[in-house]
Each structure stands twice: as C-alpha cells, then as structure tokens.
Design brief:
Strand order of the largest sheet of chain A: 2-1-3-4
Largest sheet of chain A: 4 strands, mixed
Radius of gyration of chain A: 17 Å
Oligomer: homodimer
Amino acid sequence: MLTLFHHPICPQSRFVRLALEEYGLPVRLVEEHVWERRQEFLALNPAGTTPVLVEEGAPPIPGAAAIAEYLDETRGADLENNRLMPQDLGGRIEVRRLMSWFNEKFAEEVSNALVMERVYKRYIPAGNGGGSPDTETLRAAKSNIRYHLDYIGWLIRSRDWLAGASRT
Amino acid sequence: MLTLFHHPICPQSRFVRLALEEYGLPVRLVEEHVWERRQEFLALNPAGTTPVLVEEGAPPIPGAAAIAEYLDETRGADLENNRLMPQDLGGRIEVRRLMSWFNEKFAEEVSNALVMERVYKRYIPAGNGGGSPDTETLRAAKSNIRYHLDYIGWLIRSRDWLAGASRT
C-alpha cells in the first residue's frame, strides 16, 4: 500500500497525485501541514517538504522527481504503451527537463510564493513568519507567471504533447 | 565528445565535473556567464542555468540531476563496482534525495546566494541587479549554513559514506 504525505494546494503534491492516478495506483493520502514541522514527518523527510511517498520495504521517497523515477522503476513497465517516462534517452532528457522546470523553476519563481503567501501563511503564527501576504512577493510572482505562460504556450503550439510528440 | 557548459564557482557545475572525473570521461569545458544570457546558451537551456551537458545525438541535458541520470543510463554499467548510482531501489532513493538536498535545497538556502552576491554580481551591470553584495542575503545564507553543516556532520558520523554504507 502506498501512502502519500501531501497538501491539497502544494503543486508538487498535485503532480504526484496525477501521476499515481495515471498509474491507477490506490494511495492513502495524509494531509501534511509542513509549517507545523511535525517530528514524525521530519523523520520521514528531514527537508520538511511535501510530497513524500511511503511504501513498505523502501525508504520514504521525498520530492516529485524522485517519486516519478521510483514509480517508473517499480511500475513503469506495467503501463506498457502509456508509460509516463519515455524509453528513449532523448525523451527522458526532455521529461526530466520539464519536470525540473515546473516542479523547481516554476515553483521557485511563481507557485511556491503564491502557496506560501496566499495559503500557508494563514495558518502560521505571526511570530513565526505567518500573517498577511507580502504584496511585493505576490507582485514578483505575478510578474514571473507571464513568462511561464508564454513558454507553456510555445510548448503547446509546437508539440502534440507538452514534452514531445507523444504522451508522457 | 562531451561538452560541459559550466562556471568554475557554480556548485552544480562542480558536482558534474566531479562525476565526469569519476567516470574518467574527457570533457570540453565551456565557461558560461549565465548573467549575460547569451542567445546560443538559452537555446541549449531556456532556463538559462549551468550546468548543461552536450553530447552529439542527444538533446542538451540541463541540470545536475538530469546529467547524473543520463551518465548513469549511458555509462553507469561501465563503472562496474564503482557505479555512482546504486542498483538497489533504496540506495537510489537515498542518492537522489541527497543530490536534491545539496543541488537544490542547500543551493536555495546557502550556495546560490553566496555565488550570486559574492561573485556573479561583480560582473552584472548595476542597473541589471549587479553591484555590491546584499548584506542581508549574505547574513541569511550564513545563518542557514550552520544547520546544513550540522546535518552533514550527522551524515558523516552515522555512515561510512555520505549516502550510505558504500561509495556512491
């Protein structure tokens, strides 16, 4: 049985929930409030971030990219022609590049700021970095999002699927 | 022939140079000044970051993690018992976790700030974000580094090698 420590609004958690859905894998979802820094959760992932996938017999798997590689290594072949990770080297490079683009670069420049300012900070005590959203941070994220939307638009216009000619 | 677009002071570039050295692979090094945002470089990696590995017959490979996976997939088996990526699932999870820890988390919390403030900003025009180091950013990075040194210390004390019982 798979257990996913996640948050509904965390973009990297959503990426993993979608991947699990594509694999058709049942999963027990545990909503983790990373800002509470629970000791049991930090023991699973000292980085203190969602998502973390837990499966008996393996160490906890932290982070969207490592979870994607793990799912491909353990169940990728079962998906046959619907395998999410391409089998050719070039396709793998492009999928990894775009996973990194959205889960790391887009997160750093846009989504982490929105999630933190708009959602998580409501639950964090004021003395601990919580409180009202920081308008300057939100403005920067909103300014960055335009470049990302342009890039996504270009990818969509120039390809059948985001990462290339076939579905990944 | 492999070409690595890198910068001597970029930590993720150093990670890849060390990996290439372990593989015994000759490489042509091209020093990239990412702050100049060269069009030819952006065509290789629209994210505009080092490192980028280029090999004929494959798309350019951006980022330390994707390069590590590519080297393992194309040459890992040649290293036999010295293979950097473990063959067991648990070992792979731990190596990927630590690659992400140092190349992303440590970078975000410590090294990117030091590299940007102490080195890159010297070369960036003042009107474009360059100039003197921002002392508040440097102070935050220096404060964060203590937690990372503690964590590295714990890893070293509790294991034979950073990522586990054997060399990776």
